[in-house]
Amino acid sequence: MLDRPSDTASGVSFWLARHGRSAAAARRLLRTFLAATPGGGDFDWEADLLLSELVANAVTHARVPPGPLIRIRFGLEFGRLRIEVHDGSAVVPHAREVDRLDESGRGMHLVGALAEAWGVGPRADGPGKVVWATLAPRTDRHAPDSPSTTDGRDG
Questions:
Q1: Which of 143, 134, 144 has its CA nearest to residue 47?
Q2: Is 81 helix (H, G, I), strand (E, B) or coil?
Q3: 120 within 8 A of 111, measured Cβ to Cβ
Q4: Which of 16, 87, 98, 138 could cross-link 22 (Cys pair, CB 3.0–4.6 Å)?
Q5: Closest CA to 50 of 96, 95, 6, 112
Q6: This prediction's pTM
Q7: Which one, of 26, 143, 136, lies nearest residue 73 by Cα?
Q8: Chain segment 116-134, per-residue pLDDT in tens
């Protein structure tokens, strides 16, 4: 991990080694960012999980040149948390079919279930792609329907 973040107009970014421990480092950086950002307390474990899955996907699948680094970026935009992971691979991630006994392959399903939106685009600063996801603050997310307090009988 490089020590100094690159400040952007609406967030911060960091370069990390493409390594199995990078997801944990990314989560620490995200928590630090959210703790220091007004409104950052409105994001919970879902933000950690989204970032972890996107970083793990880049670490696992972006094993092509150029460079052994990935870039993470997060910021609050219009009250939404935007998480980005940049890597040097042009291969676009997708949610693949998995059997219930498969030990891996569910990452993009989790991203799709947790994120308000997610997508993939080309990197502006070099070859490869950026995978992004947005998350609504806790107060804007729909809570599951609460159980009925009646027994279902009339009157």
A1: 134
A2: strand
A3: no
A4: 16
A5: 112
A6: 0.78
A7: 26
A8: 999 999 988 888 899 999 9
